[in-house]
Amino acid sequence: MEELRALIRDIPDFPKPGIVFKDITPLLASAEGLRGVVRAFSERHRAGVDFVLGIESRGFTLGAAVAYELGVGLALARKPGKLPAATYRATYELEYGSDALELHQDAFPRGSRVLVLDDLLATGGTARAAIELVEKVGGRVVEADFIIELSFLNGRKRLAPYPVHALVSYEKQ
Ligand code: AMP
């Protein structure tokens, strides 16, 4: 996991002052790093998942690879107005204002066991909205998984009682 940390780059003051952005592009650029994270998620969920839900947009990259590796389908939780067919919407609070995610109403069959996947867990608002959407479509959330958890923001608490798993955790900015 130290190798994984070495492939995550801190970009201070992006996208705004005071935020330290965790940039995973060096990890995606590393053949070994990319294979390592995809394997970590897929070995954890082999035979236990029917669908992967990727959260826009870095969750798509990971989600597609993990779904492929597990031999299951991929569903996309997208920002409003991007999905063409009938959707459900879940809104969540941001520091200033709110945002929302949408999911196709027929994204997966009712009763599907769904793995929710994104690159990073911060306050948990985004993943919480994704979980709500899975429930609305009639799926069962197996776990919400992330490469990175910013544990000082307590996102895990916000996602309770759903199980959460992260490959690396940061205790401070
Ligand atoms: P949150 O809803 O607060 O848990 O934020 C999670 C979403 O915002 C994820 O889709 C992340 O990609 C993105 N995000 C939040 N904080 C950061 C950060 N410090 N570095 C990179 N991405 C972040």
Describe this structure in a few short sentences:
This protein is α/β, with parallel strands linked by helices and 173 residues long. It has 6 helices and 9 strands; from the N terminus they run H-E-E-H-H-E-H-E-E-E-E-H-E-H-E.
Describe the model.
With 173 residues, this protein is of the alpha/beta class. Helix content is 32%, strand content 34%. The protein has helices at 2-6, 25-29, 31-45, 58-70, 125-137, 155-159, and strands at 9-12, 20-23, 51-55, 73-77, 87-93, 98-104, 113-121, 140-150, 164-170. The protein has a 5-stranded parallel beta sheet with strand order 4-3-7-8-9, with helices on both faces. A two-stranded antiparallel sheet has the order 1-2. α3 crosses α4. It binds adenosine monophosphate. Adenosine monophosphate is lined by residues 19-22, 55, 58, 118-127, 155.
Give the SSE map.
Elements: H1 2-6, E1 9-12, E2 20-23, H2 25-29, H3 31-45, E3 51-55, H4 58-70, E4 73-77, E5 87-93, E6 98-104, E7 113-121, H5 125-137, E8 140-150, H6 155-159, E9 164-170
Parallel strand pairs: 3-4, 3-7, 7-8, 8-9
Antiparallel strand pairs: 1-2, 5-6
Adenosine monophosphate (AMP) binds at residues 19-22, 55, 58, 118-127, 155.
Number of helices: 6
Going across the biggest sheet, name each strand in turn: 4-3-7-8-9
Bound small molecules, which ones? adenosine monophosphate
Number of strands: 9
Q: Determine Rg (CA atoms, Å).
A: 15 Å
Looking at the structure, what is the overall shape? globular
Please give the alpha-carbon distance between the first and last residues: 18 Å
| % residues in beta strands | 25-35%
Average residue pLDDT: 97
User: Could you list the spans in which at least 5 consecutive residues all have pLDDT below 50?
Assistant: none
